Amino acid sequence: MRLKTRFALLSIVLIIAIVTFNTAFVKAYHSRFPILERLFYSTSASHGAGEPANADYSPYPGLQAGADEPNGHYYRNRVLVLMYHDVSAAPTDVRSLSAAKFERQLRLMKDNNFHWISMRQYRDFILHRRPVPDNAVLLTFDDGYESFYKYAYPLLQKYKAPAASFLIVDTIGNSKMPGVEKLNWDQVKEMHRGGIDFFSHTFNSHYYGPTDAHGKHPEPALSSRLYLKDKGRRETENEYEARVDADLRQANDVLKRELGEDNHVLAFPYGAFSKPLLQICKSRGIDVTLTVKSGLNKPGQTNGFRLNAGGMSNDPELQLALMKQAKQRLGHAHFDRSPAYKRIAIGSLAAAAVIFAAWLYVGIALLRRRGTASTPPPPAASR
User: Which CATH architecture has domain 79-335?
Assistant: First the structure.
């Protein structure tokens, strides 16, 4: 192969390697560098741990309310999981949804051919590819607020809608726990008999804990190694896993004792998870987990997406418009791919270094050949 051709090919391959490295680097590290975030990402995205659970409903651009479609078909072989927290008569918290808006949501879903499914159907769909109706929707409620019993449950009964509620198990019937009043076990058992399913939202790991001595960088307790003040350091990986395993085991034991059923589902507090946490869930028989990142769920998606449907600013008509367009707007969601992009960045950088060395070597050889070709021959010796 001629030197010119070899140099041209190496130049092209080097450019490809550099572009690949730059692209992978931005995708892997943009969250660490504000300038990259501003340049390449116009809105903040969810990275691995998911969106914060206290994020209010955020309308998507370009949505407009439309007419009812009693026979509408919007997606199939997918499930849209909706997430709620507090439902109350007169909300005072940004995360609270009014009972009137919740009923409007239910009415709109029913009038537009959405079909509610139970958690049992959802698990069978995710784990065993069992069929679900077109436009399938799973309703979920987090934290176990007493308002669920007072306001949401009667409406669910009225519309014959199944639902799943995720309990912070240690707070149920525990008057010593601070914060918004939670359910008690009598209420839970009554609703369970009425068709509501109850699952784990941890035993008592629904909080942000310190990760350093100054407490300036708190992280979700279930997904992070916390700072141990008495030992002056963060938890080791083994200590973290033991703490999480004990919490999930205790939650499962209490749910089994009170409801007579094994727990196979967990909603992560704040949507935050880690690889060790996913492995611990599997070892505890928890085969389906849910985050707070928006998206559509397909068979095999054991760590699921949820669309936030609560909040004071929720617009039921616009939410319905989003649900109708879920395939287009939410169907391509994925979790953080930073580890894969990091590997690509490292590999492409190494490749670029090798290619650059070869490119430099060939370039120097090409310059030498040109220099030799341009040097005039010495004059012939005279006789």
Answer: Alpha-Beta Barrel (3.20)
pLDDT tens-place string over residues 272-287 = 999 999 999 999 999 9
Question: Quick one: pLDDT at residue 177?
Answer: 82
Q: Are 105 and 83 in contact (CB under 8 A)?
A: no
| Angstrom distance (rounded) from CA 57 to CA 59 | 6
Query: Hey, which residues does 141 pair with through a beta bridge?
Result: 84, 165
Q: What is the pLDDT of residues 41-92, one digit of tens each?
A: 443 333 343 334 344 334 557 888 989 999 999 999 999 999 999 999 999 8
- Tell me how far apart the alpha carbons of residues 88 and 314 are, in angstroms, rounded to a whole number: 13
291-328 pLDDT, tens digit per residue, is 999 999 999 999 999 999 999 989 999 999 999 999 99
Taking phi over 0 as left and psi of -120 to 50 as alpha, with beta for the rest, 173 belongs to left
Torsion, CA 325, CA 328, CA 332, CA 333, rounded to 10: -30
Q: What is the pTM of this model?
A: 0.77
Phi then psi for residue 138, to 5 deg, are -110, 125
Query: CA-CA distance, 216 to 212, in Å (whole number)?
Result: 7
As annotated, the residues of the chain forming the CATH 3.20.20.370 domain(s) are: 79-335
Q: Output DSSP code: residue 268.
A: P
